[in-house]
Amino acid sequence: MNTSIQAISLQGLILAFLPAAIVFGIMFRWAAGAQTVVYATLRMLIQLLLVGYVLVYIFEADHPGIIIAVLAIMLTVASWIALRPLEKKQPRLYLNALGAISVGGILTLALVSQAVIGVQPWFSPRYVVPLAGMIFAGAMNTVSLAAERLQAERDQGTPYIEARRTAFQTSLIPIINSLFAVGLVSLPGMMTGQILSGVSPLVAAKYQIVVMTMLFGASGISAALYLVLANRSVSPAPESDPYS
């Protein structure tokens, strides 16, 4: 198979933004928070360009201390972003998110990188950093959904056990939808990238199976752990007196 990857020209990169530009226009027209999305897109562009240069240094350094520092930064940022939707942010909730994502993410990363793939050395940045990125991002999104829904349910006076169940189910909707859709509706990024680079589709499918299971596991464990830790951190809002 041809293992070369077609380079993307600057013109092609600009053309790739056309669908996004259409959505920007709609959001501006409908006053649907276009400024936030434009800001997020610009951040994405700058962050990816910068991380490309940073990863070159990380890959060449090939030092365990640097990899540990990178993972710590990723976990710190992921935990902060996870609580972005919450109206009532508390330091304890951040610690809950950090603990939940760290436990669910690091355990899954260790299992996949060492027992499933057998990465050697264990800190090999070409494996550990991309895998950690996928795992931590998946856990971050699930914790974010769980945290937002738990707070909303508790503000409505829903008992904790019922609120926890609803928040957990809600948080897993995106990853469960992905499990249903993968291979039929979508070919996820890792599988697509491997196929484009010339890897056998069967080998790519096996890697994608590992990716999907690790994302589901890390996301579910992190969300469940956050909900348990948040039991005493999220309290229902006081009921207002309709006659006051």
Please give a handful of descriptors for the protein shown.
244 residues; mainly alpha; single chain; 2 domains
Provide a descriptive summary of the structure in words.
With 244 residues, the chain is mainly alpha-helical. The protein has two domains: 8-61, no CATH class; 63-232, no CATH class. The protein has helices at 10-15, 18-30, 34-61, 64-82, 91-116, 125-155, 160-171, 173-181, 189-196, 201-229.
- Sketch the major β-sheet: none
* Individual helix count: 10
**N-C termini distance:** 75 Å
* Number of DSSP E strands: 0
Layout of strands and helices, then pairs:
Elements: H1 10-15, H2 18-30, H3 34-61, H4 64-82, H5 91-116, H6 125-155, H7 160-171, H8 173-181, H9 189-196, H10 201-229
Helix pairs in contact: 2-3, 4-5, 4-6, 5-6, 5-10, 6-7, 6-10, 7-10, 8-10, 9-10
Short description:
With 244 residues, this protein is mainly alpha-helical. The protein is 74% helix and 0% strand. The protein has two domains: 54 residues, no CATH class; 170 residues, no CATH class.
